[in-house]
Amino acid sequence: MHSVSEWYNDIVEKAGLAEHSPVRGCMTIKPYGWALWENIQRPLDEAFKRTGHQNAYFPLFIPLSFLAKEAQHVEGFAQECAVVTHYRIKTDPETRSVTPDPEATLEEPLVIRPTSETIIWNTFRDWIKSYRDLPLLINQWANVVRWEKRPRLFLRTAEFLWQEGHTAHATAEEALQEALNMLNLYESFVQEYLAIPVIKGRKTPNERFAGAVETFTIETLLIDGKALQAGTSHFLGQNFARAFDVKFLNAQNQLEYVWATSWGVSTRLIGAVILSHGDEKGLILPPKVAPIQVVIIPIWRNDEERSATVSKAHVLASQLREKNLRVKVDDDPQHRPGWKFNEWELRGVPLRFAIGPKDLLAGTVEVAWRHSGEKLVVSFSEAVAQAESWLNQIQTALFERAKDRIQQQTYRVDSYAEMREILEEKGGFILAHWDGTTETELAIKEETGATIRCIPLDAPEEPGKCIYSGRPSQRRVLFARAY
Amino acid sequence: MHSVSEWYNDIVEKAGLAEHSPVRGCMTIKPYGWALWENIQRPLDEAFKRTGHQNAYFPLFIPLSFLAKEAQHVEGFAQECAVVTHYRIKTDPETRSVTPDPEATLEEPLVIRPTSETIIWNTFRDWIKSYRDLPLLINQWANVVRWEKRPRLFLRTAEFLWQEGHTAHATAEEALQEALNMLNLYESFVQEYLAIPVIKGRKTPNERFAGAVETFTIETLLIDGKALQAGTSHFLGQNFARAFDVKFLNAQNQLEYVWATSWGVSTRLIGAVILSHGDEKGLILPPKVAPIQVVIIPIWRNDEERSATVSKAHVLASQLREKNLRVKVDDDPQHRPGWKFNEWELRGVPLRFAIGPKDLLAGTVEVAWRHSGEKLVVSFSEAVAQAESWLNQIQTALFERAKDRIQQQTYRVDSYAEMREILEEKGGFILAHWDGTTETELAIKEETGATIRCIPLDAPEEPGKCIYSGRPSQRRVLFARAY
């Protein structure tokens, strides 16, 4: 793959995941991509509910004045807000051209939510009166809009889909714990379901969410050596409670501002899956989220063989479905087996079972593993008995492979020159000392394009010198060029 | 209930379903309301998939020029479109007030989708080449925006949530059949899950969806005698295919325009549930969609009794959960049993199990039916064994009760004077003769506020005279004042 970027766009479209829409920066998520998103949403939603969160839904629109209430917040999002100014359009009766109706302007323009802290905290003011109303643990599945200068399918789109958790607590400790709990939940989910290893860390002040006291992140490294922020969890302190005057009566009957968190993951995770596991043949989907886990391809040369292999394929499919596997039989007569093999490899289906006339006689199936290219002829009954276990093994193998890759792409670097060289030549995660100042951070970003992805939570104390300024540093931080 | 309208707003807020948001016409769906929506979404989504439909997702934004392509369509939606004109905001450094940035106006304004036919058919042009690509059966779960002059929670909100199906077919017959199939699916769902009887019919030309050749509807009648359109399914002919130039090569290798349908139901269904079954005590939720099907209330006077009844309540709850019932134990020490009884009645929980100290000794539970007010003391084991069957009986009883009510509120009327009197005095469905002209339809609407809800699909041929014009009519149509 000479250009990962071209490969990526090509695969996303050819595999039927998504495509660019005529609206700049927006994408159409196609059925196969949507099925993948549903398989991401379901276990996440269950995990949120299991940990006591409730879903709710807040308006798409945010009055401009709300956004303005938290100074850093509006600063952070002002550059990328879609603004609604009119509530009617009119057609010119002659030219039939359509324009916003100048007689129908909104008194106060509305922003399409780029995130919902402001509208939600405005509502929380009415929901929270006493410590008995806390903690309030809310999640929302929604679309949000952030105008993007350089859109990429899934990775950066003007409109994207996500979940945003918003919680309210009586103490700073409890809110901070919630932010960390959700970070851990994201880590487990992304590692277990998407087979993507992540590094947990805290963002530098410069990279924090606009309005947060502390931003935690899970960061991963993709096959092209670029980093991706896969999810964030914010400790918001009392910033939004102050901006929206949300107080509660504590057990001592005193009024206090409420403590907050917010946290989210988005359709960007699909981009992470593609760029963590894919290869020159196309997608490689982790079995736990693959819309199709096993594709069965009957092979025939004549009608008699066709009827026999197709019916055997359907028997196999129903036996696998009884084990709750997601199975597709591709018995389309318009395409030849070789075409189908390529197609389902491109689409990343973890296991392929092929059944030809000889297999019928021998009672066998040819099994092919998408991620390793291995093939094995096994008995029909073994294929049924083993499928689930094979899928579990693939899930683990993908995670281990990605982990090894990331380990190989991670460099402990002690000089700025070396860092620049690595970034230019191969990319990757760079663990290096930093003096803790925004000034240095911005200078490195300006000169190399690399940002501090995070200060890893498990970074050991290790005195050293900042690679840029030479000033003292207590621990290494994680640099990379990122999406 | 002296005013159904006040009762409705009061119940929606007090039961924790939804509330008005500070953005005019938009609502916040609260956790209990959202849980109800999830219970509506899940079986509907499964039914769509079972019938071969696939979910996908299209952009929130529609370029103005797209909307303009289908003349009737733009006509129908122009009055209620939210228009995005800017992609950035700016803060005045002195006043800190925020305004749309005049330097960041969109070249072409974007409308927030009021419905997605245009953006979807623009995409279908690329997805459909030959008859082999048909039928294309797509559904989308999304938020849409239609500016409303008189918003009502759930029933009419500027932003609402819905699903919109969009399908493409090779022949008119097949598309028409799809539109009818989806109408039937809606009928089954609404009757079986929401216990709401509906009348299937076709809309008059004047009441058709903007751009449709034929609009089918399911109509119901609410407790206040007003009608509600609960879902619609449209046969769009080739209108959108022509507007967006979507052609396919048929089996004879000729290019033809594609035939289309679209169909949708929305969060409005929650309004229908409330206004079909509720009473002066509050909500009455059909068991199949109730977020909580059984609430268990332990009753105690001292700590010893508290510990015994609460633990018994949890034993009962876990036994019921093993039967896949949705159960809540209300063991909150802050409220007394009487308060809880009222609260869960208000929230419409179908069954209440109360366990007091005497019940512990006797091994009994007091069961109360929300919809009928009945109470019965039964053995603990019977309560567990019967709960599911009781819920099924409640589901049926609610449907039958609503059916009886609607029958009583339905009038066969042969004079315009009688129609006006009924509409003024009690509302209801009015089956009357109509001459088939839009002129008459609009005159009746103007004079009485009643619209033709539909021409029922099962209306028998019955020659008669139009109640308004006296001209001949072939069958009765269904009039009502409607939401």
Characteristics:
homodimer; 483 residues; alpha+beta; BirA Bifunctional Protein, domain 2; Rossmann fold; eleven-stranded mixed sheet; five-stranded mixed sheet; 36% helix; globular
Word description of this protein:
The structure is a homodimer of 483-residue chains. Chain A is of the alpha+beta class and 483 residues long. Chain A has three domains: 274 residues, Bira Bifunctional Protein, Domain 2 (BirA Bifunctional Protein, domain 2), CATH 3.30.930; 98 residues, Rossmann fold (3-Layer(aba) Sandwich); 70 residues, Translation Initiation Factor IF3 (2-Layer Sandwich), CATH 3.30.110.30. Chain A is 36% helix and 28% strand. Chain A contains 14 helices and 27 strands. In chain A, the strands form seven sheets. An eleven-stranded mixed beta sheet of chain A has the order 3-9-10-16-13-12-11-24-27-23-22, sandwiched between helices. In chain A, strands 18-17-19-20-21 form a five-stranded mixed beta sheet, with helices on both faces. A three-stranded antiparallel beta sheet of chain A has the order 4-8-5. In chain A, α9 links the parallel β17 and β18. The longest helix of chain A is centred in the C-terminal third of the chain and has 29 residues. The first copy, chain A, is globular, with a radius of gyration of 26 Å. The relative contact order of chain A is 0.11. At the A-B interface, β2, α2, β3, β4 and α3 of A face β2, α2, β3, β4 and α3 of B. β5 of chain A pairs antiparallel with β5 of chain B, so a sheet runs across the interface.
